[in-house]
Write a structure and sequence with these properties.
The protein is α+β, with helices and mostly antiparallel strands. The chain has one domain (3-132): Rossmann fold. 40% of the residues lie in helices and 14% in strands. The protein contains 4 helices and 4 strands. The protein has helices at residues 3-24, 30-46, 70-80, 99-103, and strands at residues 83-85, 91-95, 118-123, 127-132. It has a two-stranded antiparallel sheet with strand order 1-2. It has a two-stranded antiparallel ribbon with strand order 3-4. The longest helix has 22 residues, at 3-24. The protein is globular. The N and C termini lie far apart (55 Å).
């Protein structure tokens, strides 16, 4: 690939990630911005992976544990046209991630709704904010 095409591809990953995070008004665009060149290189020059055969037994697996970078993974899955499979690894004949899925990123009832949080203000000696997470008890 040419340097121009590589840079355009990297910038497309960045832009798609930034737009989704901005649309959701939730998340952090910094990790996808910084890691786009690395992920592009890994997916295109290192990994053995066929997006049209996502259950190929000899495929490499890409594991991403940083939640802040989840949109990075979604961007790459969308841009590569990776096909969806169900829990039994049966191909569904549809993309794993659609542009509509990205538009609904971190929205209620989407494939990636994000963390459930609510904020409540307490008035005692001052106001403070407490983030509620499902693992905490009220």
């Amino acid at each position: 690939m040419s340097d121009t095409l590589d840079q355009l591809s990297i910038n497309t990953i960045r832009t798609l990630s930034i737009d989704a995070v901005q649309q959701a008004k939730s998340g952090h665009p910094g990790t996808p911005m910084a890691l786009a060149p690395l992920v592009y290189t890994i997916w295109n020059r290192v990994m053995r992976f066929d997006p049209h055969d996502p259950v190929w037994p000899n495929r490499d697996r890409f594991v991403l544990s940083n939640g802040h970078a989840s949109m990075l993974l979604w961007s790459v899955l969308y841009l590569t046209g990776t096909e969806a499979v169900n829990a039994d690894y049966e191909r569904l004949g549809a993309p794993a991630v659609s542009l509509d899925d990205i538009r609904r990123f971190r929205q209620l009832d989407s494939k990636a709704p994000g963390q459930r949080r609510s904020r409540r203000c307490r008035k005692s000696s001052g106001s403070s904010r407490t983030a509620w997470r499902p693992s905490q008890r009220s």
